[in-house]
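tool=predict chain=A
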Amino acid sequence: MDFSIRAANVEDCKDVARMNLDLAAYENVPEQVTITHKDLEQDGFSKNPFFQCLIAEVPQQHKSKDGYTSIGFALYFYSYSAWKGRSIYMEDLYVMPEFRGQGVGKALLSKVAQRGLASGCNMLNFTVLHANQSSVDLYLRRGGLDLTSDVGYHYMAFEEDALQQLART
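tool=predict ok
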C-alpha cells in the first residue's frame, strides 16, 4: 500500500482529534477525551508547543471508506530522564483499523525513533493498553522492554482534582 509519513500541521488537528476519539473508543474510554481540535491547534502549534505529531496519509485514490486520507498519527514530546538523559515520549500511536497490518504503525514508530535520535535522545518511552497484547508483542519483538514486568515500574498520574489537591499541599 502506498502511504507517506509527514510532520503534522495545524490543518491536521481535526483529523488528529477524530482519530484520537477513535483510539479512545477502541480502548473503551471515549469519555476520557476532553480536548478538541482547537486545543490541539493551541497546544501543538503555538509559539511554545507542548507536543509534535506525525501524520500517516494515503493518496486520494486509496482514501478510507469514509473518505479520509489521514489514516494514522503519532503524537510525541521530548522529556528528560535523570538516569538516562534526553528521551522522547510517544503519547499515542494510532492507525485506522482498515489500514492496520500494512506497515503504517511500524513506519510511524520508526519515524518517532528517528526524530528522537536526531534530537540526541537515547530512549523512547510510551505506554500500551494492557489488553492490547498484539501491540505489546510487536514492541517486544522489535526490542522494546516491558518496564512493568521487567523492572516493576508503574505509570502513575494525578488528574484534575487530585492535581489541584497535590498543588495545595
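The longest strand covers residues 70-81. The radius of gyration is 17 Å.
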